[in-house]
Amino acid sequence: MRFSLILCTVNRDQVVRDFFESLSRQKNAPEFEVILVDQNQDDRLLPIVRDFEKLFPIRRIYSKPGLSRARNVGLQEVTGEIVAIPDDDCTYPPDLLNQISTFLDSEPDADGVTVKSLDAQTGTASCYMHDTLRRITKENVWHCGISYTIFVRREALGDIRFNEELGCGSGTIYGSGEETDFLLNLIAADKKLIFNPAYSVYHPIFRGPWKMQRGLLYGTGMGHVLRLHRYPFYRALYSAALQGVRAFLAVCSFRFSKMWFHLAMAYGRIRGYFWK
After folding, report:
1. Is 216 helix (H, G, I), strand (E, B) or coil?
2. Domain final residue pick, 202, 224, 240
3. Which residues sit opposite 8 in a β-bridge?
4. DSSP state at residue 206
């Protein structure tokens, strides 16, 4: 098996179908499996599984709430040489798996690759990612990797897993940062990761709702990851100041809910770094 794709999902069905549709359109794809980590309380995904399981292997397993927890459950089940962690609302371009497989064959010393995130409707790059090929380091990781763009060799993982105190559904105040923490742990283990923007995963750009609570959870997650990995305190201050600038720009365009979102994120980054 070449790829194991860990898809964690809850309270969604149509986007899961859309992702499976994108897998069914893969061209010249190496052998892959989907490990579907189902956190629903019902069988809403069962018809989707039945529609696609004849096209590619799907293993449906269950997990308690929490995105990082679900990913760790999925990681226990992988059999593929390359592991990916797609979001349930992303889709793959038709030649992505073939491209990733070919690239990693051409870079045998690389332990993994991350790719660009694009909005499928507009073609706009998201998440302030870099636009040139580079090795991922502790300094540039913040603009080189999002969970659904990560492809890593299974043998490189060792015992590295997602921090279950981080991310959506963790039950803590740290509502983000789990994928950056994951990449930083790989980097700390001296694994070679490459960011290649020539390839991309489709994922919608976040356009709201701009809720303060969401901004706070995002902010505290990043601040906590900065602290966990011993970044200097001024990195937290700088990132908070950047959110302050974005809040000011939101005011200039009379988008007051977005202003409060960015102010909450700024506060969260300070809180996540300086307070446990």
Report:
1. helix
2. 202
3. 37
4. P
| Contact criterion met (CB below 8 Å) for 220 and 174 | yes
In a domain, 119, yes or no: yes
- Percent helix, strand and coil across the chain, each to the nearest 5: 40, 15, 40
175 within 8 A of 168, measured Cβ to Cβ? yes
C-alpha span between 207 and 80 (Å, rounded): 35
Q: Do residues 56 and 75 share a domain? A: yes
Same domain, 64 and 183: yes
**Under a CB-based contact definition with an 8 Å cutoff, are residues 90 and 127 in contact?**
no
What domain count does the chain have? Answer: 2
Who contacts 147 (Cβ-Cβ below 8 Å, separation ≥6)? 71, 85, 87, 178, 179, 182
Run means of pLDDT, 10 residues per run, the chain, 276 residues: 97 97 97 97 96 97 96 98 97 98 98 96 84 97 96 98 97 97 98 98 92 97 98 97 97 97 98 90
Q: What residue spans of 189-255 are helical by DSSP H?
A: 212-228, 233-252
pLDDT for 276 equals 66
Judgement on whether residues 151 and 18 belong to the same structural domain of the protein: yes
- Name the domain boundary from 202, 235, 254: 202
Range of the domain at 92: 3-202
Write the CA distances from 96 to 42, 73, 102, 149, 222, integer angstroms: 32, 25, 10, 11, 29
The C-alpha atoms of residue 97 and residue 80 are separated, in whole angstroms, by: 13
Query: Cα–Cα distance between 256 and 7 in angstroms, integer?
Result: 35
Give the domain CATH number at 68.
3.90.550.10
Is residue 207 a part of any domain in this protein? no
